[in-house]
Design goal:
The protein is an alpha/beta fold. It has 13 helices and twelve strands.
Length: 297
């Protein structure tokens, strides 16, 4: 079978150096490496002929474990995805919004500890969310705007990823176990077509300490993937899903390409590819886009 091996690194020479190191490792996996094609600074792809996908992925992961290089191995055909479905907190943006709200409420240490455990898959997501939101009771609504303006920033490459895929005909959807107040603003800033999230219940000009039901968690993210691909007349194999936490795992596993971005170990272990070093434009290189295809500001 024909596979695409994509290597991306923030250090421009690292990808080429890694490919040289990989050649012998792939020979051990009964794979033949063709001539590399440069995609952009620190990014290249190569056609690999192999008997099966899994041994090549395993060989690449072992060989690159100590190098600042992100890799993706997938079938050569069909790499361009029709749907991007992305988590928000710690994926498209660099923070966890609920933790930042907790900072304004004076309970960040308690809330962030629960967030971390929930994202590692140690706690039931829905119960953990209710517990954290309860700690925000009485927080002025004005602090939501403050949190967005002062704390929320798009991660490097996020806007380029979304705008480039949209410009090439893909649908881009933001799905978050966080809150619609933030997803609406982040979706607009990054260029997503649509967003789905949870709803904070208000009591006058403060938070009530409750979240609307049903809660958007792991299964709802998977449902969003299926609904969005069905609406496009295709199936989840046409989607690229990206996230960092345990509640992203179902959609990452179901997508044609599921990517763990700076992810918790439980997610990184199950994803088809992971991005630990490069920025989010790595997801464009994984699809065969070249740097000159990118839509940038």
């Amino acid at each position: 079978m024909e596979l695409a091996l994509t290597l991306v690194s923030p250090q421009a020479p690292a990808a080429a150096a890694a490919l040289a190191q990989l050649t012998s490792a792939l020979a051990g996996a009964q794979a033949r490496v063709k001539e590399p094609r440069p995609l952009g600074p620190g990014a290249l792809e190569v056609l690999v002929e192999a008997q099966a996908l899994a041994p090549v992925r395993e060989a690449v992961a072992r060989a690159l474990s100590d190098l600042p290089v992100d890799a993706c191995v997938q079938p050569w055909a069909g790499r361009r995805r029709a749907l991007l479905i992305a988590d928000m907190d710690s994926t498209i943006i660099g923070c966890e919004c609920i933790d930042e709200l907790a900072d304004f409420a004076g309970v960040k240490a308690q809330v962030s500890e629960i967030t971390e455990r929930a994202m590692r898959g140690e706690l039931d997501f829905e119960g953990a969310l209710r517990e954290r939101v309860a700690m925000l009771k009485g927080l002025p609504l004005s602090d939501l705007e403050r949190a967005y303006e002062e704390r929320v920033r798009l991660n490097p490459g996020a806007r380029t990823l979304v705008r480039t895929m949209a410009a090439h005909g893909a649908r881009c959807v933001l799905v978050s176990g966080g809150f619609g107040f933030f997803t609406a603003r982040v979706a607009q800033a990054a260029g997503f077509h649509a967003e789905r999230a949870n709803r904070l219940i208000e009591a006058g000009d403060v938070l009530a300490g409750e979240v609307g039901e049903p809660i958007l968690g792991r299964e709802a993210k998977l449902a969003a993937l299926r609904e969005e691909t069905a609406a496009l007349g295709t199936d989840p194999s046409a989607a690229l899903a990206v996230g960092d936490g345990a509640n992203d795992l179902a959609m990452i596993e179901a997508a044609g390409l599921g990517v763990a971005y700076r992810a918790k170990p439980v997610v990184a272990a199950q994803a088809h590819a992971k991005v630990d070093h490069a920025d989010l434009t790595a997801l464009l290189y994984f699809q065969g886009y070249r740097a000159e295809d990118f839509v940038t500001d």
